[in-house]
Design brief:
There is one protein chain. The protein has a three-stranded antiparallel β-sheet with strand order 1-2-3, with no helix packed on it. Helix content is 68%, strand content 3%. The two termini are 32 Å apart. The longest helix is centred in the C-terminal third of the chain and has 34 residues. β2 and β3 form a beta hairpin. α5 packs antiparallel against α6. With 379 residues, the protein is mostly helical. The protein has one domain.
Length: 379
């Protein structure tokens, strides 16, 4: 039987291969329109993939314990970049959001680094305070300040989807680490209430929610991409129209190579392929959870859990948006959607997860604090 680390890497390689193939199929039209080069996005993504594989390979080799003293440094760097990207003239504003730094032909999104840094520093804190995680200040308030700082800065960009993702994953990490459920429930209600108020005060987000509830009424505006995605799935049927045969990518689906690439997978390769993608992310979640439960210490256990949840929950949200179960959000599909920052950080996280697996294989983990398994059973 294959070992968990091997299965993890195999799943990631399959997702990466599918991503390159689908990017080549979906991006040519827009690449010609913008850059007069049908392979522009493919070449750029190949460059990002090369850098990401180097980063991921190094992360596989580095003992994950070496990340522990770097946790605060990573957080300070990420928060500084999140603040810097909001400064006009430094951060680039695209589509009403200031989320990127432009470095020549490459664009860097600091929120991707912030997601990893948040997981890293929460794992460090929960391991450091393992004897005090049930206390209000050390187990709840202090780590929630970290979550609020990261999610708040991302929210200001504005990037509501990533901010919500950080908040949910952060709370889940605290729950897995042993924080009292009553504390988490109170802060979750407060945070979610604030999020709802902010969304209600933002006309664009409110229109997206209204359009989500009444898509036909906004077919030419806010629901245009969603209805185009649904048409793509219908056209694809069980086996698809064939690679390269998509109609929806011809200007009907503007984000065909990024946030809505899952719809083109359904159209060109069929429901069978979309089911395979879902199964691969499910397999990734199972592998990550197994690694977390077998980690030899609290830091590794929380770090593995956070990484696994961040990647797979983002995939769930992306797929949920594309198939019409969730309002539209700008979250890419990990390993598949075009995007350099997301790819590099995702492979960095997989490298760290793989290294934890090398230490964890065959070990049940220590009993210093409640394990994730115990918390799930308790819940």
């Amino acid at each position: 039987m294959w070992k968990t680390p091997t299965v993890l890497i195999l799943i990631v390689l399959l997702l990466l291969a599918l991503g390159i193939v689908m990017l080549a199929s979906t991006s040519g039209i827009k690449a010609v329109e913008l850059y007069d080069d049908p392979n522009y996005f493919v070449k750029r993504q190949a460059l990002w993939l090369l850098m990401a594989m180097v980063v991921g390979g190094l992360a596989c080799k580095i003992d994950y314990h070496r990340w522990r003293p770097l946790a605060l440094v990573c957080l300070v760097a990420a928060v500084s970049l999140l603040a810097l990207v909001l400064v006009p003239g430094i951060g680039s504003k695209i589509g009403g959001s200031r989320r990127w730094f432009h470095l020549g032909i490459l664009s860097v999104q600091p929120s991707e680094l912030a997601k990893f840094s948040m997981i890293l520093v929460l794992a460090w804190w929960m391991a450091r305070e393992k004897w005090h995680v049930r206390e209000f200040w050390r187990g709840a308030v202090a780590p929630l300040v970290i979550i609020g700082l990261v999610a708040g800065l991302v929210f200001i960009e504005p990037d509501f989807g990533t901010a919500l993702l950080c908040g949910v994953v952060g709370l889940a990490i605290l729950f897995a680490g042993g924080t009292r459920l009553v504390y988490l429930a109170v802060f979750a209600v407060i945070g979610f209430s604030g999020f709802v108020v902010a969304v209600m005060r933002d006309p664009v987000r409110m229109n997206r929610i209204v359009a989500f509830l009444n898509p036909e009424q906004y077919a030419q505006t806010y629901s245009f991409q969603l209805l185009s995605a649904i048409n793509a799935f219908i056209a694809g049927g069980p086996m698809g129209v064939g690679l390269g045969g998509s109609i929806q990518k011809h200007y009907y689906l503007p984000e065909a190579h990024t946030d809505f690439i899952f719809a083109i997978i359904g159209e060109e390769l069929g429901a069978v392929a979309t089911l395979a993608v879902v199964l691969m992310f499910t397999g990734l979640f199972i592998c990550g959870l197994r690694i977390s439960l077998r980690a030899p210490d609290t830091f590794g256990r929380i770090l593995a859990f956070g990484i696994t949840l961040m990647i797979t929950l983002q995939a769930v949200i992306n797929i949920g948006v594309v198939i019409g179960l969730l309002p539209t959000k700008g979250l890419p599909l990990p390993f598949i959607s075009a995007g350099g920052s997301s790819l590099i950080i995702s492979l960095l996280e997989i490298g760290v997860l793989y290294n934890i697996a090398l230490h964890a294989h065959g070990r049940a983990g220590d009993a210093e604090t409640q394990s994730i398994k115990d918390r799930v059973h308790q819940f």
